[in-house]
Design a protein that fits this description.
The complex is a heterotrimer of chains A (336), B (343) and C (336). In chain A, 67% of the residues lie in helices and 2% in strands. By secondary structure, chain A is an all-alpha fold. Residues 1-12 and 24-48 of chain A have low confidence and may be disordered. Chain B is an alpha/beta fold. Chain B has a domain at 117-189. Chain B has helices spanning 66-74, 100-106, 118-121, 128-140, 144-157, 163-166, 176-188, 206-223, 234-240, 258-263, 268-275, and strands at 23-32, 40-50, 55-59, 82-90, 93-94, 111-114, 194-198, 226-231, 243-248, 251-257, 326-328, 331-333. In chain B, the strands form 3 sheets. Chain B has a 6-stranded mixed beta sheet, sandwiched between helices. A 4-stranded antiparallel beta sheet of chain B has the order 2-1-4-5, covered by helices on one side. In chain B, strand 7, helix 8 (206-223) and strand 8 (226-231) form a beta-alpha-beta unit. In chain B, helix 4 packs across helix 5 and helix 5 crosses helix 7 (176-188). The radius of gyration of chain B is 21 Å and the shape is globular. Mean pLDDT of chain B is 83; it is low at 1-17. With 336 residues, chain C is an all-alpha fold. Chain C has a domain at 89-172 and 204-335: Orthogonal Bundle (MetI-like fold), CATH 1.10.3720.10. Chain C starts with a helix and ends with a helix. The chains are: A mainly alpha (336), B alpha/beta (343), C mainly alpha (336). Chains A and C meet through helix 1, helix 6, helix 7, helix 10 and helix 12 of A and helix 1, helix 6, helix 7, helix 9 and helix 11 of C.
Chain lengths: 336, 343, 336
């Protein structure tokens, strides 16, 4: 972590991103030779083990990664099959529940409704199940948009350099200097009517500068690396160098960051809902939205907030555990 | 696995052959055990002696176990993930049996070490002066104030110009050669009787290398300090060491007094190392003869000669039976088919 | 050193200029714009035109930007439209600022006081049960939405157990004297010690909730950085000198390991501002975070402007101070 004496501006967010970027460039290009002893008495071929293969070998044994992956898998499967396994229609007010619903009394658990009703007489369990799907959509799209934006800016800056690099990075630095929730809230406020997509775009925007800096960092590191120089010396076209040699090698840190962003975007969506800037259409429930809405009633009906909160925490933890163990596994320094 | 220790004291060595050894390493073994991997024995029964004032070389290519040997002697191997056995007796005490605290009392005072990369081996955020005085404070019980002039003299002694100013400088403000001089000053601060230098010149420019070697030679001669020189560079050995141990695959394969070894290398590995050095006096057009392959080609010592796959003159027995370290023409040698010609 | 500070100051001004430009463009793109914000959606075209002229909105964009910057520099953000209608926006900000500073300070204190020692101990006992447990604990800390944690703490310790106050910064019945606006300090200054204690009790829950994320981040950075430093050659040199554990720990390990931690702390100030928005809302804290949430939901643009600009300025300023502190610790930056 000790910053190189070359960098006179040790700003932490940047440093963190840059040091993650520095773990790139290993990728598939670097093969570390393991000592290979052939017992047969011949000169054996020395087995080269790629970074990805050795990372996978270590991940497979890492309980933290396995737990994170298991949580993620369950979540994704749930999101896919939710409409079929949900006992009731999540968007419908159910007469049985409505009968007992009056101001100051929300029906609790009963036969056929293991978690009881929400404040409008809809089945809470079904809403949670269907919510998995919407939550996954928010997380995945926010990550994809953020990644795409960062990819474009970062690749432009890293590959072209010069004034493009300066301009892009100034804007990126300023965006990084605004606290991330504040930035998300500011973007969300621009929308005349909040919807699921304004939430996604607001969260994605916050991720753009992070991805951009990450990609630019690893691109710059690679531009002067031996395998890129070799490709250039061989006369490979610039586009081919960028897309075939540089981008693939930057993927490691990008995958790590994406995994972590999946977690934060779900949490941020809840924050936006809480501040009244979330999706106001609750026919297709989303956990963050459910949690945000439930805060109004939390003193009397804490369980309405509790269930979606637990879901968010577990899923966010799953993504984070996976991302952190990926980061550790892909870091060439931790291979010793 | 058969014991391979052959007492070196029965063989003639450097200029101080008659005295008791200062450091006596017997059957030193270091095994690394990493989670989920096969245990790897980096040092497989190494034995050698160092007599007071003697300079002994440990030579071999990277991965041969020479650095691990030095760290094991210093007690600096990480506590987890490795096993050390054998004996390392220093002045009659087996260092491997000492407690962490007792070892701390010895390190820096009786045995000191100089490392390979002088930039990364100095703490970047502490001034040079304090990095010298803290050893004196620790082992001599001096106050910082009393230690400062001593540190200044030490820096002066190792040839650092303007030592007063350098006391307050930080490592990044010094050149590579100056940093290595500072490390040497730190190592010699408490006048240890044994100094271990692990590739002290590898990270330096060629011209600086010569200066540092000359400095080391001068210092050990003046103070009577014994020196264990760890290197892959036979040029360093030739200029400095009284006795040379050649390591291959975690074992000593040949040992000899410097001149003997250079004049008549008996092990094909030693021979190959010498043959791969470019020589100015070689006839024009003569090609260098590198050793083929790499350490990765090694056979296990248990039932073969580890060097056999890379050897220039293997015979059938080499891939079946491990050669022992036995005297050959008066020098310990581990080879079934020694090189007979002289260079 | 002086040149270093001046260079950082120049960079800071650059960031603020770009920031003001972004803020200006952002304000212009808010739904309905300034005029609708003041007049409401149903204003007649005539009144709109008059209003636009009054606000100079018919002038070219760069003139408007110039005037905007001029007003900002004079601290003239205009009166609040809906949070406290008629009150000067800057006054609202200044009045609420100490509350947020006090909360953030205590939250950071908790995060640092727990995060650094725990990170150090976890690193020294790498892969032990203690290490794994504290890593998982810190990851859970990140996965829990801040406002939910705030609610949970409030629900358990204030509402159910009644150990700590439910909301606010101090009991109104105390009628404590105000000097600085920092209630704990005010109590000490005026020797109304009961007022200080009362304010501290109010601080506990929101500060703990707000500390959760910075704690997790500081813990993980400390752990990673100590692990990295322990692996450095100069620690081996220190060991080879036979130095005592105490000297190696304090002088060699901690000092180097604190470098990245320092910058992280500066960065977390930004995360604190984001978290404060959510935490303050839960505890009716009366700080700028609460005002920000209110002004977003009520679209009070003058208040929004001043808070966002001030938050970014504080953030940039804090990071400048952190960089200077970094230079004090790290001679490589200082003596370039």
């Amino acid at each position: 972590m000790t910053p190189s004496p070359m960098d006179p501006r040790p700003s932490a967010k940047k440093n963190r991103i840059d040091s993650l970027a520095a773990t790139a460039g290993g990728g598939t290009a670097t093969a570390v030779k393991d000592v290979h002893v052939s017992a047969a008495g011949k000169v054996g071929d020395t087995g080269g083990v790629s970074l990805i293969a050795s990372a996978w070998a270590r991940l497979r044994r890492n309980p933290v990664f396995l737990l994170g992956a298991a949580i993620t898998l369950v979540f994704v499967v749930l999101a896919l099959v939710a409409p079929w396994i949900a006992p009731h229609d999540a968007s419908k007010r159910i007469p049985e529940l409505l009968d007992d619903l009056r101001p100051g009394a929300i029906p609790g658990p009963r036969d056929g409704f293991p978690l009881g009703s929400d404040e409008f007489g809809r089945d809470l369990l079904s809403r949670l199940l269907v919510g998995a799907r919407q939550t996954l959509i928010v997380g995945v799209f926010a990550t994809i948009f953020g990644l795409t934006g960062g990819l474009v800016l970062g690749t432009l800056a890293g590959a072209l350099g010069g004034w493009v690099d300066s301009v892009v990075m100034r804007v990126v630095d300023v965006m990084l200097s605004i606290p991330s929730l504040l930035l998300a809230v500011s973007i969300a406020a621009l929308a005349p009517r909040p919807s699921q997509w304004t939430v996604i775009i607001a969260i994605a925007t916050v991720q753009v500068p992070i991805f951009a800096r990450l990609l630019r960092g690893s691109m710059l590191a690679q531009r002067s690396s031996d395998h890129v120089l070799a490709a250039r010396a061989l006369g490979v076209k610039p586009q081919a160098i960028i897309f075939r040699h540089m981008l693939p090698n930057s993927l490691g840190p990008v995958i790590v960051q994406s995994t972590l962003v999946l977690a934060t975007s779900i949490i941020d969506a809840a924050g936006l809902s809480f501040l009244g800037l979330g999706n106001s259409d609750d026919r297709q429930p989303e956990w963050g939205q459910m949690l945000g809405e439930a805060q109004r009633l939390i003193q009397d009906y804490p369980h309405l907030a509790f269930y979606p909160a637990i879901c968010i925490i577990i899923v966010a933890l799953g993504f984070t555990l996976m991302g952190e163990s990926l980061r550790e596994a892909l870091d060439p320094k931790s291979r010793r | 696995m058969t014991s391979t220790s052959t007492s070196p004291s029965t063989h003639p060595h450097g200029r101080t052959g008659s005295s008791e050894p200062l450091l006596s390493v017997r059957d030193l073994r270091v095994t690394f055990q990493r989670q989920g991997q096969e245990p790897f024995e980096a040092v497989q029964g190494v034995s050698f002696d160092v007599h007071p004032g003697q300079t002994v070389g440990l030579v071999g290519e990277s991965g041969c176990g020479k650095s691990v040997t030095s760290l094991a002697i210093m007690g600096l191997l990480p506590a987890r993930g490795n096993r050390v056995s054998g004996t390392v007796s220093y002045d009659g005490t087996d260092l491997l049996t000492l407690s962490d605290q007792q070892m701390r009392d010895k390190r820096g005072k009786d045995i000191a070490m100089v490392f390979q990369d002088p930039l990364s081996s100095l703490n970047p955020v502490i001034p040079i002066g304090l990095q010298v005085t803290e050893v004196l404070e620790r082992h001599r019980g001096m106050s910082r104030k009393a230690a400062t002039p001593v540190a200044r003299d030490l820096l002066d002694r190792v040839g650092i110009p303007d030592p007063d100013r350098r006391l307050t400088d930080y490592p990044h403000q010094l050149s590579g050669g100056m940093r290595q001089r500072a490390l040497i000053a730190i190592a010699l601060a408490c006048q240890p009787r044994l100094l271990i230098a692990d590739e002290p010149t590898t990270a330096l420019d060629v011209t600086i290398q010569a200066q540092i070697l000359a400095l080391l030679k001068e210092l050990v001669q003046d103070t009577g300090t014994a020196l264990v020189m760890i290197t892959h560079d036979l040029g360093v050995v030739a200029g400095l060491c009284d006795e040379v141990n050649v390591l291959y695959g975690g074992r000593i394969v040949e040992r000899g007094e410097r001149h003997e070894l250079f004049a008549q290398p008996r092990h094909p590995y030693t021979h190959g190392l010498l043959a791969s050095i470019p020589r100015l006096d070689a006839p024009r057009g003569q090609r260098l003869t590198p050793i083929p392959g790499s350490v990765a080609d090694n056979l296990p010592w248990t039932h073969a000669c580890a060097f056999a796959p890379r050897c220039s003159q293997p015979i059938e027995v080499c891939t079946r039976v491990m050669p022992e370290l036995v005297p050959h023409e008066g020098r310990p040698l581990r080879c079934h088919n020694p090189v007979e010609e002289s260079r | 050193m002086l040149r270093f500070i001046i260079r950082r100051l120049v960079q800071m001004v650059g960031v603020l200029v770009v920031l003001s430009l972004l803020l200006f463009l952002w304000l212009r793109s808010l739904p309905g714009g300034t005029v609708s914000a003041i007049l409401g959606e149903r204003a007649t075209p005539a009144t709109r035109a008059a209003m636009e002229k009054a606000f100079g909105l018919d002038e070219p964009v760069w003139v408007q930007y110039g005037k905007f910057v001029g007003r900002v520099l004079q601290g003239d953000f205009g009166p609040s439209t809906s949070v406290l209608p008629g009150t000067d926006a800057l006054d609202i900000f200044l009045q609420r600022f100490p509350a947020t500073i006090e909360l953030s300070f205590f939250a950071m204190l908790i995060a640092v006081a727990l995060g650094i020692p725990m990170g150090y101990v976890a690193a020294r006992r790498r892969a032990s049960f203690l290490d794994n447990a504290s890593v998982v604990f810190s990851l859970v800390g990140v996965a829990v939405p801040v406002f939910f944690l705030a609610f949970l703490l409030k629900y358990v310790f204030a509402i159910k157990l009644g150990w700590l106050p439910v909301s606010g910064r101090q009991d109104g019945s105390l009628d404590a004297t105000r000097v600085t606006g920092f209630f704990v300090i005010d109590g000490l200054l005026t020797r109304e010690f009961d007022a200080s204690v009362n304010a501290l009790k109010h601080l506990v829950l929101p500060a703990v909730a707000l500390a959760s994320i910075p704690f997790a981040v500081i813990f993980r950075i400390t752990r990673a950085s100590v692990l990295e430093v322990l692996d450095e050659d100069y620690i081996r040199t220190a060991e080879s000198k036979g130095l005592t554990n105490r000297v190696i720990r304090g002088r060699h390990v901690l000092r180097n390991a604190m470098l990245p931690v320092t910058t992280t702390i500066g960065l977390q100030i930004g995360a604190l501002l984001g978290g404060a928005v959510l935490t303050e809302a839960v505890f009716s804290w009366g700080g700028i975070g609460e005002a920000l949430a209110l002004s977003f939901s009520r679209r009070d643009y003058p208040v929004l402007q001043v808070i966002i600009l001030a938050a970014a300025a504080v953030y940039v300023l804090v990071n400048l101070l952190v960089d200077i502190m970094y230079a004090v610790i790290d001679p490589r930056v200082r003596t370039r």
